[in-house]
Amino acid sequence: MANRLSQIATRTGDNGTTGLGDNTRVSKDSLRVHAMGDVDELNSNIGVLLCEDMPGGVREVLVEVQHQLFNLGGELSIPGFELLKPEAVALLDEALETYNAQLPRLAEFILPAGSRAASLAHVCRTVARRAERAVVALDKVETLKEAPRLYLNRLSDLLFVLSRVLNRMNGGDDVYWKSERMVRMAREDQKDQDSQP
């Protein structure tokens, strides 16, 4: 395999532009570069998440996600090119179904908290949502394939589900938001218990 990165510091970006995969140059604040950067940030955050202990199956899913995000970044760097395939979206759907089936139904909104691994999964989820927004914004001015938008949307859902899986890994649970409704329900439950003989 040829050495693709023989020179890292090219200084060609000193003027505020960057080169795309088709050798065109665009401003570093263009919508395309924002989308590429958000996808790169997401992939880097998943790399941090992968430093944590987790079930083997979850690790395999996330490693595959990193490869697909690299494909997505490549696709975004070459206008009109396709690297991310619909099959990648289907794999996320399968993982979503598998892991969500293991979880209890949510009684209330949860906080992005709990174990370190779960909290990092939530960080990844929020970056995935930002990357999705960047891709949607780019798609409004330059037509993109459907897979990048679908992939990021499904991935953020999967990361939410995986955060719940990771919180339960060592006997933990979701961290529920203390909403007024939950507080009221807890008071009513306590009243019912107090009124019983």
Automatic annotation (TrEMBL):
GO terms for biological process: cobalamin biosynthetic process. Gene3D superfamilies: Cobalamin adenosyltransferase-like (1.20.1200.10). It comes from the Bacteria. Pfam families: Cob_adeno_trans. One of its GO terms (molecular function) is corrinoid adenosyltransferase activity. Keywords: ATP-binding, Cobalamin biosynthesis, Nucleotide-binding, Transferase. Residues 1-25 are annotated as: Disordered. The keyword Transferase applies. InterPro entries: CblAdoTrfase-like, CblAdoTrfase-like_sf, PduO-typ. Residues 10-24 have a biased composition (Low complexity). Residues 8-165 form the Cobalamin adenosyltransferase-like domain. It catalyses: 2 cob(II)alamin + AH2 + 2 ATP = 2 adenosylcob(III)alamin + 2 triphosphate + A + 2 H(+). Its EC number is 2.5.1.-. Belongs to the Cob(I)alamin adenosyltransferase family. PANTHER family: CORRINOID ADENOSYLTRANSFERASE, CORRINOID ADENOSYLTRANSFERASE MMAB. Homotrimer. This is Cobalamin adenosyltransferase. It comes from Polaromonas naphthalenivorans (strain CJ2). The lineage of its organism: Bacteria, Pseudomonadati, Pseudomonadota, Betaproteobacteria, Burkholderiales.
